[in-house]
Give the backbone structure.
Amino acid sequence: MEAVWVVKGIENVVKANPKKLEDLLRSLKKDKELFEEIVISAYVEGLISLSKASELLEITRDELIDLLKKKGIPIRALSKEDVIAEVEAIKWF
């Protein structure tokens, strides 16, 4: 893959200056379709939970489940992280 150097470069920049990650995320969020693809990909790879994905996309868990179903993406069973996130969300309300 030709653009692997970009990913490695981003990793190096973020290691040297973690605040740059916040800047990058803000930029990525401007392209909602791209950001959605990145978040869903991270969910599919098991890098983030369903709850974290819905939080990042600023939609409810149920809305995310509907979106994933429309895309033909299976829903993983709740992980320990999902359960903890749900409990924390309930406490917040």
Remarks:
- Residues 84 and 90 are 10 Å apart (CA to CA).
- The longest helix spans residues 4-16.
- The helical segments are 4-16, 19-30, 32-44, 50-57, 61-70, 80-92.
